[in-house]
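fyi for ur records
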Amino acid sequence: MNLIFSILCLIFLIVTLWFGVYNYLFLKEALAIEGKVVGLDRSITRTSASSSSQNSYPIIEYINPLTQEKKKFKASVAALNVKIGTLVWVAYRQKTQTEKLISFGEILIPSAIFGLFGLTLLLILFPLSQSRKIVYWLLRIFHIF
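which gave:
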């Protein structure tokens, strides 16, 4: 069982590192361009027969800095309170001609999710006497105690 947790922990931490490096390099090479929300792609997700949730993915328009033509793309994360006409920042990478909405959800959520799973598994792997010390010092660092 420890071997499975160790492998999962390693996978989660490697994926976290990969997301972090990828986003860092993307942002380092990207231009910050102002864009505008021109539409919303509303999708309904059914979790069971009686419940569902509605997500709104912003459709963003910006002017390509190389060709000066208008381009549109759909953000890969849903936004709760986004309105049409809202100005947003877009990271445009010229080398690959790709764009990303500059937002917490777009850039940090994948790293945060995989990182939390990896750290949780790492704490499970340590013996209880060691993990309680680690958790205590983490809580002290974040000023919870």
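Helices lie at 2-29, 104-107, 109-125, 128-141. thats all i got for now
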